[in-house]
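Work Package 4 report. The design task specified in the project plan requires that, given a folded chain encoded as structure tokens, an amino acid be chosen for each position. We show below one input record used in the internal validation round.
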């Protein structure tokens, strides 16, 4: 169990037991279990003072010329590299402080919207398949006789009845 004592001006914390009064479970031989030892005559009270660092002065941001900002935005949005990457160009122009040259480099390295869309093999294959005409084709083919003729055209000739 740690021993808590109030130090007076003539004593200091025992360096051997760090003020606990015990070393390896036995009474400290240096302080005789009190946790304090007398100060030397030439030892002054040591007071720790916190070190504070001063922050470097922050320079005020340079005033922004609205015309130059508009020119920067227009240069990014109208750059040839922005074609197909309009959303990225808008983000770079409006939400960053990138120069037009830096924004053009970013735009050039990004994929275009068309190339960013992954290929869909099923959609490509289905586009090649001819789909049947469904529903009424015309007024002369919407009769019961025309429908019967269409159905009979699907039956092989050897299975048709003469009639």
């Amino acid at each position: 169990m740690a021993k808590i004592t109030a130090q007076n001006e003539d004593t200091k914390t025992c360096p051997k037991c760090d003020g606990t009064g015990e070393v390896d479970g036995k009474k400290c031989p240096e302080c005789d279990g009190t946790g304090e030892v007398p100060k030397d005559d030439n030892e002054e009270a040591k007071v720790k003072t916190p070190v504070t660092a001063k922050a470097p002065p922050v320079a005020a941001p340079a005033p922004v010329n609205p015309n130059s900002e508009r020119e920067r935005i227009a240069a990014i949005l109208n750059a040839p590299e922005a074609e197909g990457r309009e959303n990225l160009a808008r983000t770079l122009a409006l939400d960053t402080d990138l120069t037009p040259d830096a924004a053009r480099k970013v735009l050039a390295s990004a994929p275009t919207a068309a190339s960013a869309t992954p290929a869909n093999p099923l959609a490509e294959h289905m586009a090649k398949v001819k789909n049947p005409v469904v529903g009424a084709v015309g007024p002369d083919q919407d009769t019961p006789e025309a429908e019967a003729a269409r159905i009979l055209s699907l039956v092989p000739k050897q299975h048709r009845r003469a009639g």
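The radius of gyration is 45 Å. Validation will be extended to a larger panel in the next phase.
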